[in-house]
UniProtKB/TrEMBL annotation:
Domain of life of the native organism: Eukaryota
Gene3D superfamilies: Naphthalene 1,2-dioxygenase Alpha Subunit, Chain A, domain 1, Rieske [2Fe-2S] iron-sulphur domain
Protein name (database record): Rieske domain-containing protein
Source organism: Dipteronia sinensis
Chief place where the protein resides: membrane
Positions of transmembrane segments: none
Residue ranges of every copy of the Rieske domain listed in the record: 92-202
Length: 542
């Protein structure tokens, strides 16, 4: 399984624009969150227009200074004007990848503090997102079923609803009585819903005014996710720390050699200063406004599209004439169209909780994804998420203690490697007062820290929400039972058969079969628990 975690492609050497004599990669591994292939700088776009912003000292500080200032050099960066406030409830939010939704059942999700239920309306052939509350007695509709007419049924009293939110049937109402099911109070709140890039998105308002919001504003568009030449396996996981900590962690490549030591391959520095291979990183912010920011790092660029999307890509120096990339005089043949991106979609769930949807589209090595099951990739990717999960969970509580708006005063961030993180925190401070707007649903407190085994749990945070991993989990558990059964039957046959009836060779074979099957079942038990339930991570022994 270790080989599956770090499945790799053939070596790919790509120089960067700033250091053409050095290669970007030693080897490209598509499980690694921080290694990239070339992508055009215009890969992504949003349909809403960004407000123009006047260049400030902030850009100059991050772009030209040798360090990132830990103090606020421009008071205006921390003071939002009314027309620059980020509207959290006027954005599209991802619910789940379509590949992990079952059309036969309703699914409960919490997004931006809102409890919703997403289900397949087969009458309209569309995914629909409702308020997860039955108007009768407030029971969760996500615990219901889809009836034989394709309606969402509340299993508490049997009320049924169409995809438009209208109540179609109340079993307790007399057929010859008033049509109470047509009353407005019998309807369910319906959220505007769309499917883009094989992800279900919803607009967090049931106000009819926003019914056709998709005509005016759409989710961020990612061309590679619509290109059939790209592979785009997706994954998702519920994370027991907040949205802001999740976003800044994904923007921080400097932590990779240390927090993920031994499970992610990194570029080796020219001069290795320690065992892990950490080194200075050139990072800066180039554009910054209410809709996010664009940054530049030594191996490419990064973009934060508020509030959910962060992606990173590289731009190699390619000889357009002979389609080769030059690296210190050595030419490596490289197809001009070979591209890859790392796309992270971060969903605010509630204080202290978030959800990550990830996909790494690429147009090379596509055959690998066709023969390797998705769950095998997720084993390695979950290990990466686990390796710094506890650190970030505790870090979030310390940030809460000092106050999110005081983050930059409490944290010492003197190097350029923290430029994106500083940029995100300043964006959050400038346009949202340092915190997410939960619409008054929550207090300022974080949920208590659960036991470590519960905090790092994979089953409820990922397996039950992933079709591939859920299928693998059930299959491997069934295989475990089969192996135990074969072991018991083999021993039973040997014990019940007289010695002169069965040859010694047959008896030995059955005994060996029993031993091998029993040992295999025990190994499988350990494998299932470690990869689908709980895998502890001790940095001291890495």
């Amino acid at each position: 399984m270790d080989a599956l975690k770090v499945s790799s492609f053939t070596s790919l050497h790509i120089p960067t624009a700033t250091t053409p004599d050095k290669t970007l990669f030693t080897r490209l591994k598509f499980l690694n969150f921080h290694q990239l292939s070339p992508l055009p700088s215009s890969i992504f776009s949003t349909t809403h227009k960004s407000r123009s912003s006047k260049p400030s000292k902030f850009y100059t500080t991050l772009s030209s200074s040798s360090t990132v200032s830990t103090e606020n050099t421009d008071p205006d960066l921390e003071t939002a004007t009314p027309d620059e406030k980020f509207e959290w409830f006027s954005q599209w939010y991802p619910v789940m990848p379509v590949c992990d939704l079952d059309k036969r059942v309703p699914h409960a999700k919490k997004i931006l503090g809102i409890d919703v239920v997403v289900w397949w309306d087969r009458n309209e052939s569309a995914w629909t997102v409702f308020d997860d509350t039955c108007p009768h007695r407030l029971a969760p509709l996500s615990q219901g079923r889809i009836d034989q007419w394709g309606r969402l049924q509340c299993v508490y009293h049997g009320w049924c609803f169409s995809g438009s939110g209208d109540c179609k049937f109340i079993p307790q109402a007399p057929p010859d009585g008033p049509p109470v099911h047509t009353f407005k109070k019998a309807c369910v709140g319906v959220y505007p819903t769309t499917v883009q890039h094989d992800i279900v998105w919803f607009w967090p308002s049931t106000d009819p005014h926003y019914k056709d919001i998709i005509m005016m504003k759409k989710p961020p568009y990612i061309p590679e996710l619509e290109d059939p030449s790209f592979t785009k396996l997706m994954g998702n996981r519920d994370i027991p720390y907040g949205y802001d900590v999740l976003v800044e962690n994904l923007m921080d490549p400097a932590h990779v050699p240390y927090a993920h030591h031994g499970i992610m391959q990194i570029r080796k520095p020219d001069v290795k200063l320690d065992r892990e291979g950490g080194r200075p990183l050139e990072m800066s912010i180039k554009k910054f406004d209410v809709n996010g920011f664009i940054g530049k790092h030594e191996w490419g660029s990064g973009k934060f599209i508020a509030p959910c999307v962060y992606y990173s890509y590289s731009e190699p120096v390619v000889d357009q004439g002979n389609e080769s990339a030059s690296s210190g005089g050595n030419e490596k043949k490289l197809p001009k169209q070979q591209r890859m991106a790392l796309i992270f979609i971060c969903v605010p769930v509630s204080p202290g909780n978030s959800r990550l949807i990830w996909t790494f589209p690429r147009n090379f090595g596509v055959w690998i994804d066709k023969i390797v099951p998705r769950w095998m990739f997720h084993v390695g990717q979950n290990l990466i998420l686990d390796s710094d999960l506890y650190l970030l969970h505790i870090e979030e509580r310390k940030i809460k203690d000092v106050g999110p708006t005081n983050w930059q005063k409490a944290c010492f961030v003197p190097t350029k490697s923290d430029a994106y993180v500083v940029g995100f925190r300043r964006w959050l401070n400038k346009y949202s007062g340092g915190e997410i707007n939960w619409g008054g649903k929550f207090s300022a407190t974080l949920p208590p820290t659960p036991p470590r085994e519960q905090l790092l749990d994979r089953y409820w945070s990922h397996v039950v929400n992933c079709k591939s991993c859920n299928f693998a989990y059930k299959t491997l558990n069934a295989l475990e039972v089969v192996l135990q059964f074969i072991s018991i039957v083999s021993i039973g046959i040997v014990a019940a058969t007289k010695q002169n009836v069965m040859s010694s060779i047959m008896r030995t074979t059955l005994v060996l079969t029993a031993v091998v099957c029993f040992a295999s079942s025990r190994w499988l038990t350990h494998f299932i628990y470690k990869n689908f339930h709980y895998h502890d991570y001790n940095h001291a022994f890495r």
